[in-house]
Amino acid sequence: MSIKFRLTLMSFLQFFVWGAWLITIGTYCFNAKGWTGAQFGAIFSTLALSSLFMPALTGIIADKWLNAEKLYGILHICYGLILFYVPKVNDPDTLYYVIFAAMICYMPTISLSNSIAYNILKRNNYDVVKVFPPIRVWGTIGFIVAMWVTNLTGSKANANQFIIAAIAAIILGVYSFTLPKCPPQKTIAKDASFAEQTGLNAFKLFGNYKMALFFIFSMFLGAALQLTNMYGDSFLDDFKQFPQYANSLVVKYSTIIMSISQISETLFILTIPFFLKKFGIKNVMLFSMIAWVLRFGLFSFGNPADGLWMIILSCIVYGMAFDFFNISGSLFIETTTDSTIRSSAQGLFMMMTNGVGAYLGSKTSGYLIDKFFIQANGSKDWHHIWLTFSIYALVIAVLFAVMFKHKHDPKALENVQH
Fold first, then answer.
1. Which residues lie across from 380 on neighbouring strands?
2. Do domains 1-182 and 204-418 have the same CATH topology?
């Protein structure tokens, strides 16, 4: 097998083992277990908590002591073994710790998979900028396929979704040991300070007003991303409570409908160079925020019948909402920070979105739903839930447009591309 094919298979499985349950765990917790929004919010927040420290920790291990592909394999095998235990768990407090343990193993593998791919491609004299994106796209395809498998096997509301992920994760873990060796690069100097080793020196960027604003808005957008991952499939599945929608395709194939979001994501990636060149980084980030307003607002008014087009359109605009902020935000870091702390700054960006923002989004949304949006019959008032989320995104967009000042510099973007 060629190097590119082997890395493509790694990328496919990397996100397959996550997509099998990430979008449907809400349906499992709400519908199969009958747990509250606060209980589910706590469970989902473990993704964010693990993102706060594990990627940095495993990065240091791979840099100094252990081959990256071996560490990657060990983590995936442990992740799979932990997921096998999920069907035995019957209370939310225990599941919190089980999923937390699984996320401690899984979350750092996202950055490790990128590092492994970069390392192997460079050593085989490939043009990383040209070759890596098509490989990475197969990760999103893997996520989509996993969602379809979960839905079509009738596993979206039961624990089989975790078994599917567990089997694939152990296969990936074993497979990773067959990859070309990626020994420690020892990129961290022996005399480096603790702050330099852990990337904490990037926190000095908070002393810069514009950078501080950027990281704060990154946190708010990270919270928005959690909302759609947590509640999207549960929202569609809950239409079965209405007789006129109970047998609709949206209810039967809710996870497949949600996968349109990931399909859209792969397409919007291709438009980013045009939008960045035409409108600049700030406007592209602003487009993302407006797309979040539409994502939530369309869900609020959509239904499986005459409002089906709103649900479909909401899934389509997700691609812009997700890609435009993450990629343009990463480029903003690349073009505005000193090279000596750039990697740490990128890590800080991910920590604020996938860590702090995601944690606050998980915990706060669960509390708010339990407090304000549970109806007398125990069902959720999805219309006002999504409408509230949409207003939240609109407030963030307006504040960002007014407060964040950044001049479009095409030359800076050209330097990144070259």
1. 374
2. yes
Q: Are 394 and 293 in contact (CB under 8 A)?
A: yes
Average pLDDT, the chain: 84
Please report where in the chains the tokens 């599917």 appear, as a residue.
Answer: 164
Q: Give the integer Cα–Cα distance in Å for 274 and 55.
A: 32
Instruction: Write the pLDDT tens digit of every residue in 222-244.
Output: 888 878 878 888 899 899 889 99
| Cα–Cα distances in angstroms (integers) from residue 258 to residues 69, 86, 143, 146, 317, in the given order | 32, 24, 11, 12, 12
For the domain 204-418, what is the CATH code? 1.20.1250.20
| Residue 364 one-letter amino acid | T
**CATH tag, 1-182:** 1.20.1250.20
Write out the DSSP string of 200-260: GGGGGGGGSHHHHHHHHHHHHHHHHHHHHHHHHHHHHHGGGGSTTTTTSHHHHTHHHHHHH
**pLDDT tens digits for range 126-149:** 777 677 778 888 988 999 999 999
Distance separating alpha carbons of residues 95 and 100, to the nearest angstrom: 8
DSSP 167: H
68-90: buried (b, 16+ CB within 10 Å) or exposed (e) per residue?
A: bbbbbbbbbbbbbbbbbebeebe
